[in-house]
Design goal:
- This is ER membrane protein complex subunit 10.
- One of its GO terms (cellular component) is EMC complex.
- Keywords: Endoplasmic reticulum, Membrane, Signal, Transmembrane, Transmembrane helix.
- It is found in: Endoplasmic reticulum membrane.
- It is a single chain.
- By secondary structure, the chain is of the alpha+beta class.
- The chain has a domain of about 140 residues.
- It has six helices and eight strands; from the N terminus they run αβββαββαβββααα.
- The strands form two sheets. It has a five-stranded antiparallel β-sheet. Strands 7-6-8 form a three-stranded mixed β-sheet.
- Strand 2 and strand 3 form a beta hairpin.
- Helix 1 packs antiparallel against helix 4.
- The chain is elongated.
- About 20% of the residues are buried.
Length: about 230
């Protein structure tokens, strides 16, 4: 029982450590730069061009600033063509951390949904317990359903983008102390003989009875001639 209790403590300790690290990362606030590129050519070989930047000024407070330039007439026509061809609108997101390290993520949505929403989209930035960006996805904010309506060019001039920063939530920590105390009480009661075993004879000793029965069955099945000779 003591070994079991020790094992449970060892298993719970990493969870507690992650919880402490998560809290400390929130106290030691940081920022991150997210470079956004998009592909407007469609097809299996996307060509990415600059769309804008997202600066998350405070990971703890989830504050972000979006900087994007208006689309040119050619870019508007490309998005309109992507939508009419039922192609995917792809984004390549490069996350630059404070120490200069970079991570790249690829996201895609249906271009017709983007056009029908009049370029209203959002980026979801996911952080782990240490405050590191582990994922960035681009989704459509509105409930567009690609019904085939052609979006006019004057509705495709500029992106309306919102950014949502989400921290990884640490799961609930089990009440290990109470469980260990319960195990200790049961062990002490068994040592003192206070716990009575009210099980039946079969329930107590089935592990001894079953092997004997199996051996007897196998022995009877392997010696049918001996049984026949006894009957004569």
């Amino acid at each position: 029982m003591l070994m079991l209790a020790g094992l449970l403590v060892c298993l719970i300790h990493p969870i507690l450590s992650q919880s402490i690290s998560f809290q400390s990362s929130l106290e030691n606030d940081g920022s991150v730069l997210i470079k956004v590129q998009h592909a407007l050519n469609g097809g299996p070989h996307p060509v990415y061009t600059e769309r804008g930047n997202i600066t998350v000024q405070s990971l703890r407070l989830r504050q972000a600033i979006v900087s994007q330039k208006p689309l040119s007439k050619a870019e508007q026509l490309q998005i309109q063509k992507l939508a009419e061809s039922n192609e995917l609108y792809k984004t390549r997101i490069t996350v630059v951390a404070n120490d200069g390290t970079e991570r790249t993520f690829i996201s895609a949505v249906k271009a017709c949904m983007l056009a029908e929403s009049e370029l209203d989209d959002r980026f979801s930035v996911s952080l782990d317990y240490s405050g590191r960006v582990v994922g960035v996805t681009n989704v459509i904010a509105s409930k567009s359903a690609c019904e085939g309506a052609s979006a006019p060019l004057d509705k495709l001039k500029e992106f309306t983008t919102n950014v949502y920063v989400r921290h990884t939530e640490v799961g609930a920590i089990p009440d290990t102390a109470s469980f260990v105390q319960k195990i200790e009480r049961e062990r002490e009661a068994q040592e003192k003989g206070e716990v009575k075993d009210n099980r039946s004879f079969l329930a107590k000793y089935w592990m001894y009875i079953v092997p004997v029965v199996i051996v007897m069955v196998i022995s009877s099945a392997s010696n049918p001639e001996g049984q026949g000779g006894g009957q004569q």
